[in-house]
Structure formats: structure tokens, C-alpha cells
Amino acid sequence: MGIKERREREQEQLRQKILDAASELFAKDGYESVSMRKIAQKIEYSPTTIYLYFKDKNDLLHQICEETFSNLIKDWKKIEDITDEPIQGLRKAMRAYVEFGLKYPNHYELTFTNPLAEYLGSEEHSYEGSMGQKAFEHLVNQVVRSMEAGQIKKDDVATVSQTIWAMGHGIVSLLNSHKDFPFIDKETFIDRSTDMIFEGIKN
């Protein structure tokens, strides 16, 4: 590995370290309570270093959300590549969504739970063209393919897509925010919840 490649790898590792530290602090202490200096202290760098990678705290939050959606899409595309039946791909995609949210609770909370209208509605960070929009469109396309294959009922695509997403979001939110609740076995809970949704929409 050459000097240039090594430097690029180190820069990407530091950028990821900043994102991970920020997501943890935002989720734990709240976005408004976290300063760039506090993030810098956590990773033991100067605030100036963070500004070399991110314009401001708002940009940092935006990049966390974009990265979260991007990684979710990558997981879904891997499933598509190895799944022939559209409805099975859709089902596996929602299982992957739940597992993703449980594996990365801080990133998930910031992206899917916190009110992000402040930046999502801004001209600088519009929903149009964002990774969030692309992720939802990916889900919609999976629903359309399943309908066209006759595997789920013909219905309003937006309604079905949002219902499936709400199911996955509800599972993740419950398991992440109520860790002391006496849930049944986690895998059984996820499987049965998914079964109930897909039984209701299948053809």
C-alpha cells in the first residue's frame, strides 16, 4: 500500500470515528446538548480536526443519516442478488431492516426516531434525492414487484409500503427502547410479527 492510499484509509477511519462518536453522543445526550467540542473530546482530537471533515454539527447529523440509509440499501441489494421470489426478498429485507436497527441502535434512533424536520425540510438537506428517499423507493419497488408477481394483494402501493415499514420500525423501537420489558424470545417475536403482517397482505 502506497503513502497516498494509506493516508486516504486513515482519513476515512477518522471520519468514521467522528460519525460513530457523534451518533452515540446525539442519541445519549440529545442533539441540542452536544457541541463539536464535546465530540472532539470523546475522540481525543481538536474541534478543528472535525471541521476538516464536516461543515458544522448539522452537516454531521445529516451525514450520519445518509450513511445509515446507504448501509441499509446495501444490505437490501445483497438480499435481492440471492433471492428469486419477490415476496421472499421483501420479507428478508424487512428482517434485515430489524436486525440493522438492533445492531446499530444509536444510528437508528437518530435516523428514524428523532424529529429531523429541522434539516430534512431545509433547502440544503432536502428529502428529494436523499438516501432516505432512495431507501424508501427501494422498499416501494420491492412491493411493486411482489404485486406484479401475484404474491401480495393488489392494493395502494404507498399504503402497503408504509404499513410494512411501520411494522419493522415498531419492532425495532420496542426492542431498543424497552430492554427491561419481559418480551418473549426475540427471534420468535420478530418472526411472528413479520408473519402476521405478511399473512395480511399476501394474495
Q: What do the pLDDT scores average to?
A: 89
Q: How many E-type strands?
A: 0
Helix content: over 70%
Give the overall form. Answer: globular
How big a fraction of the residues is strand? under 5%
The chain-level structural class is mainly alpha
Helix count equals 10
| Order of helical and strand elements | HHHHHHHHHH
The major beta sheet can be summarized as:
none
Radius of gyration: 19 Å
Low-confidence stretches: none
Distance between the termini: 54 Å
Please describe what this structure looks like.
This protein has ten helices and no strands. By secondary structure, it is mainly α. The longest helix has 27 residues. The protein is globular, with a radius of gyration of 19 Å.
Characteristic terms for this protein:
10 helices; mainly alpha; single chain; 203 residues; 0% strand
Summarize the structure.
With 203 residues, the protein is mainly alpha-helical. It has 10 helices and no strands.
Give the SSE map.
Blueprint: H1 3-29, H2 36-43, H3 47-51, H4 57-82, H5 86-103, H6 105-113, H7 117-120, H8 131-148, H9 157-177, H10 186-201
